[in-house]
Sequence to fold (824 residues):
Amino acid sequence: MSTLIYLIPIALFLGGLGLGAFLWSIRNGQYDDLDGAAWRVLDDEDGTKRGSPGAHGG
Amino acid sequence: MSCCAPGTEGAIEAASGGTLPSSEEMRLAARDLGEGLRQSDLSVPGVHCGACITTIEGVLSGMPSIESARVNLTARRVSVRWRDVEGFDPQTIPAAMARTGYAAHLFTAPIAADDALRNELIRAVAVSGFAAMNIMLLSVSVWSGAEASTRDLFHWISALIAGPVLIYAGRFFFRSAWGALKHGRTNMDVPISLAVTLSYFVSLWETIHHGEHAWFDATVTLLFFLLIGRTLDHVMRDRARSAITSLARLSPRGAMVVKDDGGREYRPVEEIAVGDRLSVAAGERLAVDARVIAGMSDVDRSLVSGESAPVTAKPGSMLEAGVMNLTGALVVEAVAVARDSFLAEVIGLMEAAEGGRARYRRIADRAASYYSPVVHLLALISFLSWGFADGDWKHAMLVAVAVLIITCPCALGLAVPVVQVVAAGRLFASGIMVKDGSAMERLAEIDAVVFDKTGTLTMGAPRLIGREAAGRPGTLKGDQAFAVAAALAAHSRHPLSAALAAAHVGPVPQFGPVTEIPGRGLEAVTPEGTWRLGNRAFACSGDEPADDGSSASEVVLSLDGAVIETFRFEDRLRPAARETVARLRKDGIEVDILSGDRAAAVERVAAQLGVSRWRAGLAPRDKTEAVRESAAAGARVLMVGDGINDAPALSAAHVSMAPATAADIGRQAADLVFLRDGLDAVSFAIETSKRAGRLIRQNFALAIGYNVIAVPVAILGHATPLIAAVAMSTSSIIVVANSLRLRGPTPALRQDAAAPKPASGMASPA
Fold:
C-alpha cells in the first residue's frame, strides 16, 4: 500500500510525459509529411536554407 | 501514392496547360508574413521521391531573396518564403522549378477551420487514449481483488482522470447530440452522450459511497473508441479534399486591365468593373464575361459549353468567363462583373439544384433513429421493473446504466467509418478521391449513369488518326512533309497543332519567322516557298475561312497554295470507355449521354460506345432538368462530367464524379474525383462502394448480434464492469477485423492508351 503512494504518481507522470510529447509533435507538424520524412533521412546535405516542418506549417 | 503512379501527373499536367502562374498572380496569392517576408504555397504534382525533394529545395534555396523552401511530399506541395525586395520577380520561383522539370501551380488554400477540427479530434483521441490506459490499469487492479481503502483510492484516482476527459473528449458528442435534440431528431450521439455521462456520474456516486463497482474505464474506453471512428472519418475527407485542392486551378485570379492612358495594371477578379478593357494573352483564361474589341484568335469553349472544336473569336464575339484563349492576343471589354458572370449563373443553378447530398441521411444516422429509442426504452424498462420488483432503486439504477453502457453503439460507431476509410484508401491508391463517406453510401445505390461527352467520355484533346499525301509528283516525301508540319505546329497553342507536334517523333527542320493567323493557321516564308498549315481554305488559297463545323478535324499543309498533305484528327475516347459502358450495362445500370456539343459529334461517340440514349446541344439548365427528370422518375443517378456547364447537373444528381482535368467548379461540385485517364475508375468506384455497403451491413448484423447476447445479461443484472469491458472490446475488434477484409490488391486501372505524354514529373515546354 505504501509503495502505491509514489508509484501511482510516477506512472501518471510518465504517461502524461508521453501524452505531452505526442501533443507537441502534432503541433510542431511532425506528422504533416510522413512520406517526405522517410526520404529526408537518407539526404546527406545539411540544407541550411531549407525550412523545418514547424516553420512552414499551415 | 508513390513513384509507381505515373500518369497521375500527366492528367494534372494536361489541365495546367504548362503555363506558369504570372508574377501578379503569385504576388496576389502569397501570404504576407510581415517584415517584407511572404510565403507562397505551390502545388507540385510531379514530386514523388527523395531526389525530387533535394532538387527542388536545392534550386530554390540557391536563389537570392528566398529565405527558405520546404517540400511536403505527402501533400505534393512546396512552401517558399521569400523577401519582397525591389527587383525580385516571384514568377522566377515556378520558373526555376519548371527548369528543373517540375510544373508548379497555385491552388486555393484549404479551409483553415477544417484543419483545426482535425487537430482537435486527434488531440482528443490522444487524451482519451492516455486516460483509458491509465484507468484500465487501475481497474484491472480492482478486478484482481483490491479491497476496501485501496479500491476506493483507485476509484478516486480514476474519477479524477475521467472527469476532465469526459468534458474534453466528450464535447464533440455532446455538441452533436444537443444539435440533433434541439431539432427534435435523434442521432447516434444521443445514446453515446447519455451512456458516457450517466456512467460517469453513477460511478462517482458509487465511489463516494465506497461502492464495489465503478464504470470509469467504460466511460473513457467508449470515448476513445468512438473518437477513433470519428477521427478516421474526418481524416479521410481531409485527405481527399487536400488532394483535390492541389489540382491545377483553372479559373484565373485576376486579369490585366488596360487603362485609358494606355497603362496596364493587374487587378484581382473581384475588382474588374463593367466596361474595363482587358488584355488577354494567348494561353490565358477569361476572368469575366466579355466582348472582343480587337484582335482575332481561336478560343476553346470546351469547359464552358462542352463544344469540342475551338471557335474563332473576332471583334464583336461574346465570350463567357472560363473560356481559354488559344492562339492570338485579344483585347476585350468586360460586360459583366465576376459575380454576374456566366460562372455566377452556374453557381446559382447549382445552389438551386442541391440534390442527393442535402436530402441524403447517412446510414449510421438512419440506423440510430431505430436504435436509440429501443435502447433507451430497454434501459427505462429495466430500471422500472427492477425498482418495482425488489424496491432497491439504487440497484435498479445500476442495472439501467449497465444496459446503456453495454448497448452504447461502440461497434456501430466504428462499423461505418472503418469500412469507409478502408474503401477510400483502396480508391485513393487507384487515383480516385472520395470527398466523404456519404458519397460512398450514395454511390452504392445508383441505378443510372449520365455521362458528359467532351472531356469525360473523350479526352477533350484531339489525336492524329491519319495523314494522306496529296500524291503529286515532285513534292517532298511523306515523312519530310510531316516533319515540316510538326515544326510549324510547334509554334501554336491550337489543340490540333499541339496534337500534330506531339505526334511527330524525330528531328524537325528549323524555320525563320512563323506567323500565326488566328482562326486560320500558320504561315512561314522560306526559300522553297510559302508553307501554310491550317484549315483547307486558308492553306489552298488564302480566302476567308469557310465556317463549316467539320473543318476542325483536319489540317492541311501546303506549299505555295498547293496541298502537300492532309492530317486528320479525332477527339479520342478515354481509355477503357467502351469496357466501362459495357460493364455498367451488364450490371443493369442505364447509361445516358448529355452533351453541349453538336449532335453529329455526340452521335459518333454514342455509336462508338453503343449508347442509344443521348442528347446534344444542351445548356447547363437543360442538363440539370434532364437529371432531375430521371430522379423524379425514381432513378438514382450518377452524373459524370467535367465542364463548368456540368456543375449544376453534378449537384443535382444523387452522386457525382469528375475527372481531375475538370473545371474548378466541377471538381468542387463532384463527390468523387478521379486522377487517371481511364474511365474504368467509374465502374471500379461503384463496385468498391457496393462492397463497402455490404460490409457495413454485415458489421451492423454483428453489432446487433452482440447486443442480442449481451443485453439480456445486463438486464438480468449480471453485467459487472469487467464483463462490460470485455464485451465492448471484443465486439469492436470483431467489427474492425471484418472491415479490414475489404483490403486487397488494387486492380491496375487503365492509365493511358495512346497519346505520347511527357515523362511523369516533367514540365511541358512552355
